[in-house]
## 1
Amino acid sequence: MTCKNCGKEFEGGTFCPHCGASQVSANNTTRADDAPSTGYAVLGFFFPLIGLILYLVWKAERPLRAKSCGKGALIGFIVGIIFSVISNLLIVPMIMQMSGMYGMLL
Ligand SMILES: [Zn+2]
């Protein structure tokens, strides 16, 4: 059989003689309810802070679901930064211009 961690071949057993990785843990630690989740990715996208917290909570026991949360949170976070930059570059000067025009009218 081949090691799930390093990929080297060995005669068998619960631990790899090359790297010491457990060969049964991959099946035992994976929970039935651990799967990539689009719903949690969307949740993380809209609430990056909640996504980050869920990622940290699930990272060990539910790595696949945690990854979905983390990915969503990261994208949401980046999009949030882009939007704030755009609003600073476009909307704020626009409002200032509008308020300046409004001030001239008065
Ligand atoms: Zn190995």
Note: The pocket of zinc ion is lined by residues 3, 5-6, 8, 16, 18-19, 21 (CB under 6 Å).
## 2
Amino acid sequence: MQTAIIGTGQIGEGIAKKIVKAGHSVLLTNNKGAASLKEKATNLGKLAIPADLKDIVKADVIFLTVRWSHLKQVAKDVPNLQGKILVDVTNPILDDMSYDDLKGKAASEIVQNLFPKTRLVKTLNHYFLKWIDADPKVDDGKRVAFVSGNDIEAKNTVANLLKEFEFKPIDLGDIATGSKLQQAGGALAALNIVSYPA
Ligand SMILES: NC(=O)c1ccc[n+]([C@@H]2O[C@H](COP(=O)([O-])OP(=O)(O)OC[C@H]3O[C@@H](n4cnc5c(N)ncnc54)[C@H](OP(=O)(O)O)[C@@H]3O)[C@@H](O)[C@H]2O)c1
């Protein structure tokens, strides 16, 4: 599976590590361009490839890991992503660390409107970086990763990828209801949950 990261900062790099460990290729992008990502890519290994935003059309699954304040610009900059699976890992947190006023909408509904032709799945945004970076296997249990989305096939693809990362995916339903629970300020946000065998 070809994957890509839009915004290889803290979270993007953390997810890229999981992708590479699972044996998939990942295109790394950021705002500064491919040349600035060479060292990061080298550290991640041969499956990580520095790229420019125009190159992400080669990916089937694209992780969106930019700050909330940068989303509108990114939406203008990306190539045509029609039909691509867009994995929304963002949270509606402004640069002064306050929550954006979403007027009752789910954050991912806003992201979906900015990237209208994509098949959006929300996941991993509910964890701080340390829980994304950590080994998801805890004793004989697995750390839970919530998934929300309206496109069942896209959600299954992301859930299977999360299983390859060794998380236990839990489906919260659609974007309007499920993703609200996992976004910053939601009932399930920031909880470090491990599922153990019965
Ligand atoms: N940090 C956490 O614990 C955490 C946990 C869960 C979710 N999140 C969410 O994850 C998202 C990313 O957070 P972060 O802490 O990883 O942020 P970050 O370290 O600041 O990384 C953001 C990345 O976005 C890139 N970027 C900015 N504008 C861009 C553009 N126009 N095109 C392409 N790339 C662009 C930046 O590129 P440059 O490097 O070139 O500037 C940078 O690589 C946020 O929405 C945050 O709320 C964060």
Note: Residues 2-195 form a domain with the Rossmann fold fold (CATH 3.40.50.720).
## 3
Amino acid sequence: MTTNTFLVTGGTGKIGSAFVSLLATDPSAPIVRVATRDPSAPGARLLRALNPSTVVPTAFDVDKPDSLEAAFEGVTRLFVIAPFVPDMAAWHGTVAEAARSAGVSYTVKVSVTGARAPGGDPAPGRIPLSHWQGEQAIRSAGLAATMIRPTIFMQHFLTVPALYQPRAERFFLPTGDAKVAWLDCRDIAAAAAALLTAAPEKRAPFEGKDFELTGPQALTAAELGEMLSWVARRTITHVDGVEAFSANARALGVPDTVKGIYGEAAGGWFSAVENTLFTTLLGRTTTPFARFALDAAAQFGSAGGD
Ligand SMILES: NC(=O)c1ccc[n+]([C@@H]2O[C@H](COP(=O)([O-])OP(=O)(O)OC[C@H]3O[C@@H](n4cnc5c(N)ncnc54)[C@H](OP(=O)(O)O)[C@@H]3O)[C@@H](O)[C@H]2O)c1
């Protein structure tokens, strides 16, 4: 059996860490290169500790051809998680060209719900447009690839300070009564790992295609609040409205730019449930919000450590 060498860009982030942790315990023991700006940083070292004989944090800088060449040497399969850089299209173009030169046989890219060309109706915002351009860069390089287009991550409750502060009594989410099919981003890692470790004949039906990926249910903010309250065993209240969200961001001294995405969510943009890729590959549904909340209970629990 040939051992695969995987490269994952954005490998120390939320999706990347979950992906590396799955492959670090995979019985086929593939080599996993974790692209990072700093292989000696704690996040990279922690991932290496998952399996020091197969997980290799690797310096990666799209502006340094030497670093790209070294990172891609011998790579057979690629998982593209793009950082928010000013020119995401150019970033993808450079990565796709390096993958083509290295002879990568299969690529999975994390895109976004609603990725679409300029001139679409409605016209795409910056993020869906940038990801569509990234998808196009991969297609244009002639790489065999699958695009996963995920909806908003449940992990916003861990990473967006203006939405929620650890163990707070309230969360600020300007989505009104709209339902949102929040996704646990660890499910993207699971889908990508299943695709990238599959034999060519098993992944063939997914090649050259793009798939939306959401959580298993679309939920209102009030429903999220109920579940968070059950996990925390005290009431966690939903605060609605863009003004309240922005005021909370100002009080915390953090940006409120994500309000644009929550505004789209309020308009019903993220309400459809679509799990076909995931259920076909993994034989189960994506992670329910209640399970995410249970796993992150320390974030929502009482200050006394309930
Ligand atoms: N958040 C959502 O709701 C959502 C929804 C749909 C799609 N997405 C997409 O998911 C992707 C993000 O995935 P994620 O949340 O797992 O990522 P993440 O946790 O935000 O970070 C990924 C990694 O990217 C690297 N990075 C950060 N800034 C960088 C920069 N300026 N230049 C180079 N590398 C940089 C960092 O690695 P090092 O520090 O080790 O270099 C970081 O660990 C994005 O493409 C986003 O559009 C997000």
Note: The mean pLDDT is 95.
